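Example with several molecule types.
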Amino acid sequence: MLSTSAAAWTTPVVDYHALAPEIILAGGIVLLLLLDLFISESKKWILTPVASFTALGAFIPVLTLALSDEGARSMFDGRYMVDDFSLVLKGLFLLAGYVVILLTSDHLREGDYYQGEYWFLLLSSILGMVMMASSRDLISIFVALEFLSIPAYMMAAWRKRDLKSNEAGIKYYLLGVFASAIMLYGMSLLYGIADSTLLVDIGKQLGEDVTAIRAVAVLFVVIGFAFKVSAVPFHTWAPDVYQGAPTPVTAFLSVASKAAGFVALVTVVYVGFPGSHEVWQPVFWILSALTMTVGNVMALKQTNIVRMLAYSSVAQGGFILMPLAVAGIDGVANSALRAVVTYLLVYAATNLGVFAVVMVVSRKTRSGEISSFGGLFSYAPGVASLMTIFLASLAGIPPLGGWFGKFAAFQSLVSAGNNWAYALAVIGGVNSVVAFGYYGNIMREMWMKPVPDGDTAPVKIHSSLGVALGITGLATLVLGVFPGLVIHFGDIAGLAGAFGN
Amino acid sequence: MLVNQFLMLGAILFCIGVYGVIARKNAVLVLMSIELILNSVNINLLAFSLRNGSTDGHTFALYIIAVAAAEVGVGLAMVLLMYRNRRSVGLDELSEMKG
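Resulting structure tokens for the full complex:
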């Protein structure tokens, strides 16, 4: 029965330069585990710089790969691809991971425990994301997805004795595993249809015609990733997990984990199902419209800042999904991919910045309520101004990064030029205005309201948190003023195999 | 090859698993239902793999088994944590956060 398996074994060619980011991360992870095991408790502080240098060290080969002009590097019969698309997202994951390390090292001063294991899990999750950006095969996508998710489940439940953190971990775990099981069922059907796990082959085999089994396969895979990006109606875990997990973990989940979900979604849709757009375009249309609307409406009535940011990040996910609803129309695929990649970069910088500010403020006020931001400007004008910039960017006010991300998304909808695209653009427009309601509410608290407890001692910002605020603030401003720096990263030519190229 | 029968078995297991995840309120039973779905996926993959004579499906199934083991390890640890803190594994009692 297994008659064709007699081909002679040949050693696969391994391009070590292309794999260097993954190798450095893996080396750093092993080093961290060994150090944590053998060094004494008083020297554990050394783990933090080791984790930071691992993330930054893995960023160096990403840069050298981007600067080399060899083009896309394909390994293992095209199952692992290092092209421009994957490189820019690897860079995003590594830098976002570095900012989360900075946020956490600040958080550790609060007296959190088990830092060795924490760094190990955080870097493992980043390694999974870096692998996800290059995966072009069902098996490697699945392994990368689990590699980035399983550590994230544990990080969400990090505070072992805290009931909220417990609940966050269990909810995230059960829904996450359920979604990936559904996705796997879709993948098994895809394998049956295409007789191959390679996404390019699946793209060729699926073709244009829609049958029930093909529709089910595509739908299940999309649903699996829709959970990861917390698209409504698969978002129910997000607010609880974000609220219950430690704040740096929340920042990590809402930025890096979500971006990884979008990367997988884009690869699968662009390389794997280019012909089946009649199936996935309506799905993305509905998901996007629901995600924006429900996310915004729920965010309006929140009083807890982290919970509000959770719904805000759900709503932002709707905007990132928006261009995918038209990506199958001739000539729009390129601008849709540009919009998704640009939006992801901007959203990552801005949202990490917001969480950094939330950590600064909640440290002082010991409260998670939005009202605790009252009068922030009077005692911490710098932090209040930065927060205003981040919130304005999330709301999409020019000339900040978020404005450009939204602009690119609307542009791809308009260039699609059909009524469905216009309708989605109108829904998106209304939602951007609604979103200003809750972002503006925080601004009003900071600038107009009095300090709730009258304590106007200036806030202390440790150096690591200051660096995180600096990086994210600068990125938000620069991406808004000079979007040309990143927009070409989303060119479809950079995604090898997309739409049969 | 009787691929159809295998696929029917896979589909039935999948449906039982999905029903279990939605209907059960006990964390351990939900975990078991998820395992059912994963096994239905394995049956599908092996059936397709036998039909087309390639080993990709076998490899995929082996990966799923290995990753599922890791997942269940984490899952049971969390259920244990929940039991320690609450003396119960009922999912409907998880309502610290709402809205």
